[in-house]
Specification:
five-stranded antiparallel sheet; five-stranded mixed sheet
Length: 631
Amino acid sequence: MPKTGRVVILKEGTAGLYFPENVGILLRTFKGKKGSRALLYTIKGEVDAPRSAVRGTLPLPPVDLLSPETDLKDVLKRAVHLNKVGEEDYLSKSPENILIEVKMRDLWRAALKAIEGGEGGEVLQEVPKRYSGLTHPRGFTPRELGELYFSKRLRDEHVEAIKKILSPADDGHYGYFVRLKGERRHLYFPYRNEVMSAAEEERNLLRALANALIPRYEEGVAQEAEGGGFSPTEVIERLRSLKGEKREALERIINWAEHYIENATWGEDFHISPAPIRRMEDFDLEDFLLKMLWRLFSGKGMSLVSALTELMLLSGRWGVKDAVDALMKYHTRSGRFHFPLEHTPQERMEADVILKRFRNEEFAERRDLTDLTTYTIDPPDAKDFDDAVSILEGDGKYRIFVHIADVSHYVKPGSDLDTGARLRTTSVYLPNRVLPMFPPEISEVVCSLKGGERRAAFTVEMEVNQEGEVERHWIYPSVIAVDENLSYPEAERRIREGDRTLSTLYTVVERMRKAHPRLDLETPEKRVRFGEDGEVKVEIKRPTPSTRMIETLMVKTNEIVAEVLKERMDFGVFRIHPLPVKDDVEEFNKLLEGLGVERRIEVRWEELKGSEEREEGEAVLQELLQSGKIT
């Protein structure tokens, strides 16, 4: 509220006063029966009005009410004229001009001045804890701030311009003001002067840090961070050379980066003052960090997460393994990859119940194959074993058994575990860890075919003749007991040493391969591994006899299951390879001919086109979609 003697502008209609005569001299304020009141001298004489009717002040000196020489009517005459002339002058400005000329800092200073004079605004009785002691408890509407700054009455279109100037403060991370809910409406509460001073000091310190790391940094920023950049060794040396406040500032940036990468969002401490300020009119903290790192790493255009990860590595805070773990969290939590890193409490609870029941299970009504010699053959670092193989010989034929862990025996449709598995669709094998489709109680215990332990399985049994042809097959639920969990190298050694079971299995599978030859593109596969010391190693994985043996058995098993599904069900989900491009096949045949290879690839195009089958499949799919059975 203005002080006694000030010439004020009144809300239009107060005591029947309208522009430009809505002015008065404040005689005194007091508490009345109807709340806070103001006694004013106007062209209609003394007026008793609500204090809220006072909208602002005119740029006239305070009136000495005690002096006998003071002519109140003359003061009012000048006030009316100034109100009219000033308004006309102001209204000549367009809202666009206001947006150019007025800064949020200007409105902030006007608000502080008003608070010092005890003028205007609405007091917030309880400031939110996050802003306690950081903002003044007196807040203002955009109209009030505009009128404080211009000392003039505003039109609605000009108030809209003031709102646009204030809008960056709406998210709570901009300087000068924070937008909070008052008793009846949202108001803008100005930060205290010391808060903004702290923000400016931190901004200046960060700029000094950038200049210490990157010569002529300010020029680089002006040129949108073009050019510059240092080798990794130079960056490490520059980071290590920082001392005192600059070292502390770097540590804060590193902490911010760590939180951002692991959580895909900035932490609560990502700000440049005691208040949660990240931006001001001439500074944006996130933009500043990105451009500084661009200049440091010569990486203009690199993403924020890439730049921050580079900083974490070169500062020594993380090793490569740490960075990979953190980036996995980032890509999952950012929504880029929809693969949950952790299982839900409901999934873990359900898995625990299954585990307790499993320990006492009798496996009734399943074919008992525990007397068979059975092996799992997997990579050396495998933790879960989901398939196993056995073989029997007799009457000039062979019985090969492929056992697949029976997850469906435990995980029922519609359960929490089933829902989680549908979301993931598979287990993901990464260089440093496995992201299992099921919790470890299921994937590594209940449904893992561990040596020496009874497990539920689905078995595909094949009767194979001496030529490697599968003459008959059976599929049934079983219970098995794996004799050993072998790695590929161990199986390889056993085959070379003449282990009867494995050698026989290998020989029969080779006959199966020759009976149905395929094009084997023995392409080496690159595998990234992390050593215990965090060192990154790239291994070249090449096909071996044992990997080919297991691959052949799994392909044949899938073929048999697909055939059964096709025969017994109206529809199924099949993974197929598309037909090759006809021109490519002809070109390849010419290449073979040029190399002197007396073979050709013959494709029966008309037989394999399958247009009728494709049309039938599309019709079934459309029917399922319309019925809502699949989405």
